[in-house]
Amino acid sequence: MHLVALGSNATEREHSNAELLKQAVAEIKAEGLATRRLSRLFSTPAFPEGAGPDFVNAALVVDSPLPPEGVLAVLHRVEARMGRVRRERWGQRVIDLDLLASGGRVLPDEAALRDWMALPLDEQMKRAPDRLILPHPRMHERGFVLVPLADVAPDWVHPLTGQSVQAMLAALDPAEIAAIRPI
What we know:
The protein is α+β, with helices and mostly antiparallel strands.
């Protein structure tokens, strides 16, 4: 089981961004990943604040015999076909597909994951990993990831923290969660 986050803030029109997410799911299926569960679509504030129009976000559970690196390669191909260009970190984007987790795997290792999880926000904004880090090192901090993920994998447990998606979500600031709404 692989957990995928989807997002788009290509335009200021919520409907258009939602259609882009639906297109991405169709492209993921066409690439041969078995889509098991898709969350509702959610309107979420841009992160960091002021980084562009609000997002439409969702979460997807897929199955594949591919290793996590292969699943990530599929997601990157879909992004490229849909016009994703990586110009700036956390900038406006037509589509953003993130591999959040692959079962209970920790990649590349526990020490590297812990280092990335502890990285201060100002450093997160400057640096990107040069290899796949799983689970996503900041998924536990982000309502725009956890709210949709709770729709499709509420009982998935983070292999380092030991917390379920529901528990991680409950630990977030209620004001952050209140700003996320289903569409």
